[in-house]
Write a structure and sequence with these properties.
This protein is an alpha+beta fold. The chain is about 35% helix and about 25% strand. The chain has helices at about 20-35, 40-55, 95-105, 115-125, 135-150, 165-170, 225-235, 235-245, 250-255; strands at about 5-10, 75-80, 85-90, 110-115, 175-180, 185-190, 215, 220-225, 265-270, 275-280, 285-290. Helix 8 runs antiparallel to helix 9. The structure holds glycine (GLY). Glycine binds near residues 173 and 205.
Length: about 290
């Protein structure tokens, strides 16, 4: 099997399958760009923008709150196999962090953070958004209740005392998309409000190259799950390096998931010239559209 072009979208490790309609709409929007001969990078940005605007996913308008109960800080990244790379970290008050990351690819820099990223977003015309979603408020109430019970250790970065069921029921985690276009260019985009619970200022895997995302001549990979664990394993680059060996994405993504203990939610999507894969140790809403030859 060979792919002429195609796109795969996920709604985050732990996202229920009944959110797949959101992934389908995002995928369709991206696929139309590819069908019209557009670049893979535009397609993945469009897919992530749709999921950021959906409100049910932990990204953009659906982003979760930090542990203070009032702050939303988001991360996003884009990359393709022809040298485009952009990352934003800890950005507040913008509707589409993925569009800011895309904007960064047009500057001499590859990463912007915090206030500078927000000023840049304003300069390039990214809409502001200061509302917090109902889901984010509900999730935060659960975090607060657990805090009161003394079940969150403030200095434990993995909050292990919470347990896996808490994470899987509470947070959809990152959204992401991978694509290949008709010219054989691969691209990835990812966006997140972070992992519940987290301190203000915390940055996860999503805007870290080789951890939450990677794209190169052999394919593209997007990861989702608890960022600290993904970063320790440099997951996306590790899986991508497997693509370079033989181009078979299914086994590489499966092996990537197997690097994690069962109580760590993690998911991967990958695409190469030979096919695509969706792997996760939790439910994960997703959708794929490909044209094969
Ligand atoms: N995977 C999203 C995060 O940990 O921030």
């Amino acid at each position: 099997m060979g792919l002429d072009f195609g796109v795969v979208v996920h709604g985050g490790a732990g996202s229920p399958e009944d959110l797949s309609d959101g992934c389908k709409s995002a995928c369709l929007a991206a696929f139309r760009i590819l069908e019209a001969g557009g670049p893979a990078l535009d397609a993945v940005v469009e897919a992530c923008r749709a999921l950021e605007d959906d409100g049910r996913f932990n990204a953009g308008s659906g982003s979760v709150l930090r542990i203070d109960g009032k702050t939303v800080e988001m991360d996003a990244a884009v990359m393709d196999s022809v040298g485009n790379l952009g990352m934003v970290m800890n950005i507040r008050g913008v509707k589409n962090p993925v569009a800011v990351a895309r904007g960064v690819t047009r500057t001499p820099h590859v990463a912007l953070a915090g206030r500078g990223a927000e000023a840049f977003a304003k300069k390039i015309g990214i809409a502001a958004l200061h509302e917090v979603s109902v889901q984010a408020l509900e999730r935060h109430e659960k975090v607060s209740a657990l805090l009161k019970e003394g079940r969150l250790g403030e200095i434990n970065p993995l909050w292990k005392d919470i347990g896996p069921s808490f994470f899987s029921g509470l947070s959809c985690d990152t959204i992401g998309a991978v694509a290949v276009d008709g010219n054989g260019v691969f691209a990835v985009a990812a966006s997140t409000g972070g992992a519940v619970p987290m301190l203000v200022g915390r940055v996860g895997d999503t805007p870290m190259i080789g951890c939450g995302f990677y794209a190169g001549p052999a394919g593209a990979v997007a990861a989702t799950g608890i960022g600290e664990e993904i970063i320790r394993r440099m997951l996306a680059k590790k899986v991508y390096d497997g693509f370079c060996e033989d181009g078979y994405v299914q086994s590489e993504c499966r092996d990537g998931i197997a690097l994690f203990a069962a109580d760590i939610p993690v998911g991967l999507i990958g695409i190469s010239g030979k096919g695509y894969s969706v792997s996760s140790n939790r439910p994960m809403a997703h959708y794929a559209m490909v044209r094969e030859s």
